[in-house]
Amino acid sequence: MNVSNRRTFLAATLAGATTGLHAQDAYPARPIRMVVPFPPAGAADFLGRTVGEKLAQSLGQQVLVDNRAGAGGNIGTQAVAQGDREGYTLLLTGVPLAVNRFLFRTLPFDPDRDFEPVALIATVPNLMIVPADSPANTVEEFIAYARKKPGGATFASIGNGTSLHLAGAQFSSTARLDMVHVPYKETGTANTDLMAGRVDVMFQTISAAAGLARGGKVKALAVTSDVRVPAFAHVPTLREAGTDLVSVGWFGLLLPAHVPPARKALLEAQVLAAVRDPAVAARIADSGCIPRPLPGKEFAAFIADETGRLGEVVRKAGITAS
User: Fold this and answer.
1) 10 Å Cβ neighbour count for 175?
2) CA 322, 171, 194, 144 torsion: positive or negative?
3) For residues 160 and 103, is the Cβ–Cβ distance under 8 A?
4) ω before 31 within 30° of 0 (cis)?
5) pTM for the complete prediction?
6) Beta strands 180-183 and 154-157, pairing class
7) What is the pLDDT of residue 74?
8) How many Cβ atoms sit within 10 Å of the Cβ of residue 179?
9) How far lies 22's CA from each of 16, 17, 25, 260, in Å?
10) Alpha-carbon distance 298 to 48, whole Å?
11) How confident is the model at residue 22, as a pLDDT?
């Protein structure tokens, strides 16, 4: 092979290698799966589909929401922990990532080592709601009513250790009440029993309680965030109502550990851009959630803080998964 041909061969080889490298690095090259370890139609599902739709536009690939509920969120979370390490599987989760380690004797994953936080999406305030015919019209009146009720007042939730259970337990402790927890398996039955007066109060997500409150089927006494929520601007916060308590749920996106850093960085940037998009932020706010885009490092610190705070709530209240 003469010098000219050798140069041509080397140039073609290098070009081919470079093209192959770029093809390998192209990301995303196929749809991304977003696992939501909770049932459809809740706040997590809504946030996943809202942000996923915007991500699909910016990434040029479908983002498929995969609801894998069960075991307090552990089934879907385990699926992601054991999933691919190429950046094609995301986990959208919240409070269970922080508290399940305190509720279950063992977990099929390590919540600290098996995941890398990508971004916090939103916080989710709850409404403190009571039956429409409850004698209480304010938080102060409810506390007085609960203290006088024989056997104590009852509060509903959608399961042991859920964010709604924790909110009720914190309120009971802060207000120095001895309320009885009544866990339900799903939101519809809990709401029905509250409306019928079979339970006295519930801390319910705004998305699940909004229609009932606006329709006069329940009364909203307070919101659990540190500021009023635009969707219920007339409802005071618990602090405004004289109870020093802030208790909100939250949801964010994580990847399995050891995803290539460049892919994690791309997803982080695109998720933050999606949540900051005015149209997306407005949809999130209209649902009763509060957009709160935090990058991965800050989200990791947020999870650590929540783990410590909520772990103390679980220990004080003696909460278990069963």
Assistant:
1) 19
2) positive
3) yes
4) no
5) 0.85
6) parallel
7) 96
8) 20
9) 10, 9, 5, 15
10) 20
11) 44
> CB–CB of 52/76 below 8 Å?
no
Is the distance from CB of 90 to CB of 32 less than 8 angstroms?
Answer: yes
Give the tokens for residue 322. Answer: 């069963």
Q: What per-residue confidence (pLDDT) applies to 23?
A: 42
Report which residue type is found at 33: R
Dihedral pair phi/psi, residue 201, rounded to 5°: -160, 160
Q: What is the pLDDT of residue 208?
A: 86
Assign 3-class secondary structure to the chain: CCHHHHHHHHHHHHHHHHHHHHHHHCCCCCCEEEEECCCCCCHHHHHHHHHHHHHHHHHCCCEEEEECCCHHHHHHHHHHHCCCCCCCEEEEEEHHHHHHHHHCCCCCCCCCCCEEEEEEEEEEEEEEEEECCCCCCCHHHHHHHHHHCCCCCEEEECCCCCHHHHHHHHHHHHCCCCCEEEECCCHHHHHHHHHCCCCCEEEEEHHHHHHHHHCCCEEEEEECCCCCCHHHCCCCECCCCCCCCCCEEEEEEEEECCCCHHHHHHHHHHHHHHHHCHHHHHHHHHCCCEEEEEEHHHHHHHHHHHHHHHHHHHHHHCCCCC
Q: What is the pLDDT of residue 2?
A: 53
Structural tokens at position 270? 């695109």
**What Rg do the C-alpha atoms of the chain give, in angstroms?**
23
Task: Give per-10-residue mean pLDDT for the chain (322 aa).
Answer: 48 43 72 95 92 98 96 95 95 96 95 97 95 97 96 92 92 94 91 96 91 96 92 93 91 97 98 98 91 98 96 90 77
pLDDT score recorded for residue 8: 45
